[in-house]
Amino acid sequence: MGKGKKSSGLDLPMPLEALGLTKQERAYRSIRDAILNGLLQSGDRLPSSRVLAERWKIARGTVESVFDRLQLEGYLVRRIGSGSRVSALMPNSYLNLSDGDVDESSSVEDLKVSPVQEQDYRARIGIPFVARLANPMLIRPAEWATQLHRAMSAIRPEQMCNIESQGAFDLRNQIAIYLRKHRGIDCCAEHILITNGIRHSIDLVSRCVINVNDSVCVEDPGYPAVHRIFEKAGANIVYAPIDAEGINLRGVTIPVNCRLAYVTPAHQSPLGVIMSATRRLELLDWARRQDAWIIEDDYDSEFNYQSAPLPALKSIDTIGRVIYCGSFNQALFSNLRIGYVIAPPDLHKNILSLWRTIGRSVGVSEQLGLAEFMRGPAFLRHIRRARKEYQALRDVVIKTLSIEAAGFYRISGEHAGFHFVLWPSPGINLEGLMKSASELGLLLQPLERSCRNIVLPPAFILGYAALTQVQANNAAHQLAKALVSNG
Fold first, then answer.
1. Which of 114, 163, 223, 405 is at a distance of 20 to 30 A from 475, taking alpha carbons?
2. 467 contacts 390 by C-beta, under 8 angstroms
3. Which DSSP symbol is given to 328?
């Protein structure tokens, strides 16, 4: 408990049994209501989960789940060595006040974020709406440390100094099992090469297949960071427009020296379009006729909120032209820096030879720890939990906007991933909207920054994954206010 505080979680009564309420829900309401009513105040330290479990006569795991939920909603902050403390963030109930009761001067402070720099749209935690990162609160450090400890306890001496050039076999084998089951890709450990992320994989591929003045076909709008990789490899960029079915090769003239096409078929970045089956077959046929390669960036296929995603493009590649790139930096946490690439056999050999030449930067402990994480149920359990939480964050933003700013916008690409696109209605003062949002602590990334030749109506990319539900609710409330005031 914070110094000088008199309130104590030990004083909290367990709510009486009520129809339809589980012990977990009752425990959750007890702590949440104590925070809302002021019995527990900002900075107060709660008793440990073991102590509360004994007092309330419920399982310790149940209390841990309650603490996790309260942390995700912004009521608690949990740190190793410091325990669980009441957060300074404004709780949900205070966000339901009428406009006349809201202290406008506190809006930015309530989000607890640093002032944002204009035109700085890097993905960052806690800043609406550039929070397009895996939420670090969804994986407990102790849980990850347990996987690392198990892996390193069983490590063989040869693994500490002579790990396979293409990555630890244990990890590559677990990835192959996952891809066969969940992405429909017929592969084995020998087909996989470990990298430190998708951009790293694409850089390796570019160095192996692109000659100076070759052309590369990319999506428009698309992912600018990858486009810069191709430019640094000496390629000329051909921008193919995106429509409701994905990349449209008929909408652009592709030169005969085009060696490569880069696509994000599961959840197009940034529009969120799913590439149709027809377009997938057209793309494969183009690669066959052009004797070209296709890079499939499957960056966030784990997070689909409406239905199972279509199988990977790689799964229907019978001619060996698709290079599949995946990563765990979205699935787990962004600084894990573990990705992988699957290329057809001859190209795989070339990439591996290059990788041996320039070095291998992925540590063995991280690889073996991740393999241990994937071997049991923990990894899939985490994916399910993360999918549920990201969907809840998305729903908070969408619901608040629909209630408070209906008719002032439309959205698209919300079925999956860490962001969706908001299209302001015609007549909205866009300059005023950007200014209002900035003053309220919101960072709106214009879609036009991802466009090259394509001309689209004004829109913004809204990232929500690395927010708490309190932050998401508050940010959506402020965005709705900005939309209405500039409509």
1. 223
2. no
3. S
How many whole angstroms separate alpha carbon 464 and alpha carbon 343? 33
Which domain range does residue 179 map to?
A: 142-378
Q: 484: which residues sit within 8 A by CB, 6+ positions away?
A: 404, 405, 408
Buried b (16+ CB within 10 A) or exposed e, 352-387: beebeeeebebebbbbbbbbbbbbeebbeebbeebe
Pair (109, 239) in one structural domain: no
Same domain? For 329 and 244 the reply is: yes
Sign of dihedral through CA atoms 467, 473, 477, 478? Answer: negative
Query: Residues 188, 297: one domain?
Result: yes
**Domain stops at, among 378, 393, 426:** 378
Please tell me whether residues 100 and 133 are part of one structural domain.
Answer: yes
CA-atom Rg of the chain in angstroms = 24
441: Cα within 13 Å, side-chain hemisphere:
23
Q: Quote the number of domains for the chain.
A: 3
**One domain for residues 351 and 402:** no
Instruction: Name the nearest CA neighbour of 327 among 285, 288, 269.
Output: 269
* Count of residues in the chain: 487
pLDDT tens sequence across 130-162: 888 898 888 878 888 888 888 888 888 777 777
In terms of Cβ atoms closer than 10 Å to its own Cβ (0-12, 13-18, 19+), residue 13 is: exposed
Q: Which residues of 243-276 are buried (b: 16+ CB within 10 A; e: fewer)?
A: eeebbbbeeeebeeebbbbbbbbbbbbbbbbbbe
Tell whether the torsion through CA atoms of 331, 334, 338 and 341 is positive or negative.
positive
Specify whether 345 is located in the same domain as 394: no
Per-residue pLDDT for 272 more than 50?
yes
Tell me whether residue 65 is in a domain.
yes
Structure tokens at 359: 């070095």
**Dihedral sign, Cα of residue 233, residue 239, residue 240, residue 242:** positive
Does residue 4 fall inside a structural domain? Answer: no
In this structure, is residue 74 part of a structural domain?
yes
CATH code for the domain of 187: 3.40.640.10
Q: Is residue 130 located within the same domain as residue 214?
A: no
Q: Over the stretch 100-113, which tens digit does the pLDDT of each residue have?
A: 333 333 333 333 33
Instruction: With H, G, I as helix, E, B as strand and everything else as coil, classify residue 169.
Output: helix
Return the pLDDT at 90.
42
Closest CA to 251 of 238, 234, 232, 261: 238
Q: Residue 3 falls within a domain, yes or no?
A: no
Three-state SS at 98: coil
For the chain, what is the total number of helices (H) and then of strands (E)? 14, 14
C-alpha 31/C-alpha 25 separation (Å) is: 10
